[in-house]
Design brief:
Pfam families: HATPase_c, His_kinase. This is Sensory signal transduction protein. One of its GO terms (molecular function) is phosphorelay sensor kinase activity. Keywords: Coiled coil, Membrane, Transmembrane, Transmembrane helix. With about 575 residues, the protein is of the alpha+beta class. The chain is built from 14 helices and 17 strands. The strands form four sheets. Strands 2-1-5-4-3 form a five-stranded antiparallel sheet, sandwiched between helices. A five-stranded antiparallel sheet has the order 7-6-10-9-8. It is rod-shaped.
Length: about 575
């Protein structure tokens, strides 16, 4: 059973070759995927993330540049000495005429600072009390009081009166700074109104994500969507950085060192890594397609390559003892397989010649051994029968002697006619009837015998005189310590392609150790010649000769069984001889 299971788990050569290439392809696929992820995807991902961070810095620099332009414009105004005197005179003017004159001077200074190109909404000048003096265009609707703008702003910061501040009101961002001389004396305030949409336009086209610019207090100064709030906002701990939020979006930020504004770019992760995923997906699809093509190619190649081998294996399986001249159906085209086929055919021819020689020699040897064994059993049988006839003659039983001579004549004719040819079981049973008829003349009513066989007995072939020794054993040994009547029953049965011959008696049976001794003698006796000086004791010359001749004929297709009858109705012992119905004897 273990061998069958082991055989069932074996794979064909084609399957092994295919699985080997499959494992190799899977290994290549794994190496390719690792290569794509480590050598291509990971660096590309890091570069993409770095580019996203650089983009945030570029956006921030664009806004810083715009704010710096306003700062430079304010510096050009502060660089004019006339602005201080005009601011001072306007504050101390006693008439409107004098005030308007100074305001005109201030506008001229503003005009010179702004120049021909204008990228702001308006510019306003306030006195040192924060009251509006003048506005360049007046289109920005600047508040009359600077504190009003400061307080209305959502920033809520305190004015430090140094540097500049950026305030947002609705869609207007105001750049506010003090007008002071080198000694730090404050003459008033300058306010440049910038349009929030203009700053937002500066951030567009640089990145695919949404841009939001917040001040240090978290108020949105400009961005893709005005008025968007950032819940739980906290000031970043670093000037630049990149992270991923809970919605799987990349968030990059960059803090301006001049304005303090924090530029945020929110980009969906799939937008950032979309090209990377495309490269990864295309690589996997490409290698998968190559693998599928390789699978089909390997399968077809191995099948075509190994087809001659499978045919050769099929021819070997079909080969048997009587069919040694099989030829391969198709000549293989592969040179190596062609040489293998020629070598196989040459091997078969030489094997057939060797088998023919061995078969002929074995046949002659078997005939010689069979002749020697039968020559031993025939005199033994004749001696026993003549002894019985002599006893009957001494007792004056003429009729019995006549019948015994007739039975003896038939038996001798059976023995000497073609003594080396095999006979049918029916003929062997008929000879046994003659023998039992001779023996019954001695035991009369004390011996009962019965032989049962059907037409199958005409198909079974046996050597001559193989049943008689078992019957002799019953008469001479089985009934020695048993009261008559003594019964011998011979039955022939057939089942599952086997035939079985049973010889049963109602004697005293065998001792357990005797059965083992008999079987051991049969096992070790082989097919050697038996010496003529052996007695007819149980397990000796008669039985062993019969078994050896059956072995010569049936080889390993014969089974001998000996056992005692243990039922209440039956006593004694049974000897079974089981053989195959095949006619291929040698």
């Amino acid at each position: 059973m273990a061998k069958l299971i082991h055989k069932a788990t074996q794979f064909s050569l084609q399957t092994k070759v295919f699985l080997t290439f499959l494992a190799l392809l899977l290994f290549v696929l794994g190496c390719f995927i690792v290569y794509v992820n480590v050598i291509v995807v990971r660096p590309l991902k890091l570069k993409t993330e770095q580019d996203t961070l650089v983009t945030a810095t570029k956006v921030r620099e664009q806004v810083d540049l715009y704010v710096e332009q306003q700062n430079q414009m304010s510096q050009r105004i502060l660089s004019s000495k006339d602005i201080f005197s005009a601011m001072d005179k306007s504050s101390s003017a006693h008439s409107n005429y004098e005030r308007l004159k100074q305001i005109r001077i201030i506008k001229d200074i503003m005009f010179q600072a702004i120049g021909p190109s204008m990228n702001i909404m308006d510019m306003s000048i306030y006195d040192k009390q924060g009251v509006l003096l003048t506005s360049y265009l007046g289109s920005g609707n600047p508040p009359a009081i600077l504190n009003t703008m400061m307080k209305s702003s959502q920033i809520g910061r305190d004015w430090t009166e140094s540097g500049f501040v950026l305030l947002r009101q609705a869609d207007t961002i105001s750049f506010v700074r003090t007008i002071n001389d080198q000694n730090g004396k404050v003459y008033g305030y300058l306010s440049i109104q910038m349009e929030q949409a203009y700053i937002q336009n500066l951030t567009e086209g640089i990145t695919a994500g949404d841009v939001y610019i917040l001040n240090e207090q978290g108020e949105q100064m400009t961005g893709s969507e005005a008025g968007v709030t950032f819940p739980n906002w906290t000031k970043p701990s670093s000037d630049e950085g990149l992270g991923v939020d809970k919605d799987n979006n990349y968030i990059t930020h960059s803090t301006s060192p001049s304005t303090g504004w924090i530029t945020y770019i929110i980009t969906p992760k799939k937008s950032v890594l979309g090209s990377i995923h495309s490269v990864q997906t295309m690589s996997i699809l490409l290698i998968t397609a190559l693998m599928l093509v390789s699978f089909v190619y390997i399968f077809l190649s191995t099948r075509n390559l190994l087809l001659p081998i499978r045919k050769l294996r099929s021819q070997i399986w079909r080969m048997n003892y009587s069919n040694m001249n099989l030829k391969v159906d198709e000549t293989p085209k592969n040179n190596d397989l062609l040489l293998l086929n020629e070598a196989f055919q040459d091997l078969m021819e030489r094997l057939q010649q060797s088998i023919d020689r061995e078969k002929s020699a074995l046949h002659e040897e078997v005939k010689a051994r069979n002749s020697a064994l039968q020559a031993q059993i025939a005199p033994h049988f004749i001696h026993n029968v003549l002894y019985l006839i002599s006893i009957a003659a001494q007792e004056g039983k003429t009729k019995v002697v006549s019948d015994m001579c007739k039975h003896l004549s038939d038996s001798l004719r059976y023995i000497v006619s073609s003594p080396y040819a095999h006979v049918t079981l029916a003929e062997e049973l008929q000879h046994t009837r003659h023998y039992l008829s001779l023996v019954q003349q001695k035991y009369e009513e004390d011996l009962e015998w019965d032989i049962r066989a059907d037409e199958l007995a005409n198909e079974i072939r046996l050597p001559r005189l193989v049943i008689q020794p078992f019957v002799e054993n019953c008469i001479e040994h089985a009934f020695a310590n048993t009261a008559p009547p003594w019964r011998i029953q011979i039955t022939v049965k057939q089942y599952n392609g086997l035939w079985a011959l049973e010889i049963k008696d109602n004697g005293e049976g065998f001792q357990p150790d005797k059965i083992q001794e008999i079987l051991a003698n049969i096992q070790t006796s082989g097919t050697g010649y038996q010496t003529a000086d052996r007695t007819t004791a149980l397990g000796n010359m008669g039985i062993i000769n019969s078994v050896n001749r059956l072995k010569l004929m049936y080889n390993n297709r014969l089974f001998i069984n000996i056992f005692n009858n243990h039922t209440e109705e039956e006593h004694g012992a049974t000897i079974q001889i089981i053989g195959s119905l095949t006619k291929d004897f040698y």
